[in-house]
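Record format v2
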Amino acid sequence: MSAEQPPRLPERDRPWMMRTYAGHSTAAASNELYRRNLQKGQTGLSVAFDLPTQTGYDPDDELARGEVGKVGVPVSHRGDMAALTDGIPLDEMNTSMTINATAAWLLALYIVAAEEQSVTQEHLQGTTQNDIIKEFLARGTYAFPPAPSMRLIADMIAYTVEHVPKWNPINICSYHLQEAGATPVQEIAYAMSNAIAVLDAARERVGAELMEQVFGRISFFVNAGVRFVEEHAKLRAMGILWEELGRERYGVEDPRHLRFRYGVQVNSLGLTEAQPENNVQRIVLEALAVTLGRDARARAIQLPAWNEALGLPRPWDQQWSLRIQQVLAYETDILEYPDIFEGSVVMNGLVEELLEGARAEMAVVAEHGGAVEAVPYMKAALVDSHRERLRRIEAGEQVVVGQNRFAESEESPLTADAEGGILVVDPALEAEQVEALDRWRAARDQAAVDAALAELAAAAGDPSGATNLMIPTIAAARAGATTGEWAGSLREVFGSYRAPTGVGEAAAAPADADLSELREEVSRLQEKLGRRPKILVGKPGLDGHSNGAEQIAVRARDSGMDVVYEGIRLTPAQIAASALQEGVHVIGLSILSGSHRELIPAVIEALHEAGVKAPVVVGGIIPDQDVALLRSAGVAAVYTPKDFNITHIMRDIVALVGAGANESPVAANVSSANGSA
Amino acid sequence: MSEDGAALGARLRERDVGAAPATLNLLESTATADREQAAALLAEVSPAALGGEAPGHVIGVTGPPGAGKSTLLSALLHSWRAQGHTVAMLAVDPSSRRSGGSLLGDRARVDFDPADRGVLIRSTAAGERLGGLAHATRPAAQALAAAFDVVVIETVGVGQAETEVAEVADSVAVVVQPGGGDVLQFLKSGIMEIPDVLVVTKADLGQIAVRTRRDLTAALRSLGSRSARVIAVSSLPPRSGIDELVGALEEHRAGLDLATSRLHSRRAGALTDFSLEHGERGLRRLGGRQAAGALLKQQDPGLDGPTLVAVLEGRLR
């Protein structure tokens, strides 16, 4: 505006919605946690589901082993949803669910749980994340191939806009793109391209007269890193692009519907395991990026905990993050002013720069045929950006305090307790959850469930696509079907899918001195082995956070090894079969979901049964106290986020294979003239 | 591992598919000691030792990236396993070796039951060899054909890739996606040899798949080919055309004079290996390529590749 604008708002702004991303163990335990959080001044719920629920498996599925109740709450049926929301009035609550492939199902369970509280669906408020493209790109909890996944999303949009009008059926996520290494320009461009794909799909399923409302119900879920000035500019740029898109592509005119609405979880990628207390100031600064300027302020915020790189946060850790929000909202003066960047030459310049870059990148995605078709392109671009980010950190060009600079530290009292300052989920819980599921199945009307699932499958398989899939989904939820049954019925019809890994297209790393030396070492090892050293990089379990595995795979290739990388979600049996058939010399496993205590020994047992003798190394979020356990299970080495130099990890791995070649001279045995079978 | 090459060869001859991983480790090795054992292994599965040609059907599957080879192979695998056939798949990855290393991603896209011992998938980098095969692919296919019912060699590319595959495989299928103009052009211009089967994938795309199939059939007719078949498949559910393809491959193989074609392949392969090792100079010392070929023709038809190379090398001394 003009210079005459008063420097203060007539009335202090209301704070954004404050949430904590939470859920673990069981529905009942999570319900208790939610109620406590609400008493502490939290104003909305943010439900974290466990990986089996997110990917559509029941707790008794082989793939669910070790994952039940770990990174979130298991919800298998309407009984679990009722327990999760017990005593929380659903007509007043605003609930955000981080759920994607199975979003239609969890929304159906939520609607049925509300019915049981005598709350009808038009009163429900909240958000289902429901963004499948970023699952293919970055997060990995997809269940079905792209086309039917987009249909499920479009059906949810069409259903909610009519029947659950206060619900945000989808949150377009740029958050996970940044976690996967996206630059600000990539984050903006891919999120906007993704939104276009969703809106175009929705246009096929709803009447033209409803598109204005549909546009108005699309919200975003963004990230904010520690370069908080540029991050703020990014959000302003997104607002401008969004409005443009609404007006030009979808003919939206109402300014309320054109507003760029977003929630945020600030950056976890930059949080360190080394000197984890520094993460608190990182989180505070990142929160400023999404609150400072009124014109691009978040509607809802959840902050990560200081100890995320160590393991699962405890309630106390999450309370600390909530208090950061409360200090910002209630103690500082940021809510008293109009937009403080209005007219700033620097801010406007930054915004312009980002807009230009984002428009160019959006054009590239459009040339690929849109976001769905461009998934392999975008994935490879993200792997490449992340590779570059790591290179800068390794080379010291990007400073990470406490990690690649100022690394000397006193003992931390924060991690001194027996658990190392994190939450440990009781491993007995998985068995209990399986038993509870058996009881649920025994008590329900099986014929009704079978009929409902048959109805669902028929609607999904009908080539005309006449039925909105939310209808049979809600019916199946009422009948008492389970998460695994719902997803299983759809997998039968839709088929299953493996997303591109992006590693094959990643550019080669520039050979610095360390890498050149390593390549020579690999060549010497090849001479000794008779074959090029071959590594299997595997991700057991349901965890879809594949950044680490991808970067290890790319660097192993750049070191001169042959690399077998099969992507995420592998069973121990699959990993063992690959290791045997491919004749690999070493196996690298990556797990970030906290299920390493169960899964790593299971993989080692499977390898043993298959007769594979190659050594195993493990990387991921592995608490100190678990390292000994993994070593005694037979793991040769364990790497955690503080081992940020990947070339050094490679050097260890090459040495490990070399030592093995000396110890058990396979070639010599095979070649001895009198060797016997 | 304490097995030597001859013992592994004997296990393959007994159709023990469990010997395959160790066999491949040995055949891929360039260490001198391993090469000797590899020769011993191949002698054990030579036609002379087997008392005839290896029973497995060696099938080359090739096509441009994105044509749907992996999905097609998943469907074929499913179908072969349902018939009780054991299947080995040698996936040759074309990725460049600038750093020396390769990312081998193909097995990830082929869907199979990991507990099924009747399936083996092995990925190798094509490396610096022209023509799309890794150095061990030919001997590996020959050895595994002794134990497995079906041996698939999967390569990426079109135009030249199938030429070397054709030298190793009994039957060659080229995979084309609807609208894939390259294959049609290469076929018409004669850059590409006529494959035994042309597979048009993604039949569910409808009109464009139908048109591609029609164009290919017309091109084959104008080139005077009578035997090559064009088959449209849909590898994703609801699947279609897969049984027809399996049938066409079997039919092709049944119509082959297997002894003659494999003998030709072993001799041609030996010549290729010899010239890679000793270059044009080596060939000249044998009196040229034709003379070397004539020398090979005088040898016992039951000899394996390495023995034939050794015969040629014997003349260098």
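The interface with chain A takes residues 1-5, 7, 10-11, 20-22, 24-26, 28-31, 33-34, 36-37, 95, 98-105, 107-109, 111, 114-115, 120-125, 236-237 of chain B (CB under 8 Å).
The CA atoms of residues 48 and 224 of chain B lie 37 Å apart.
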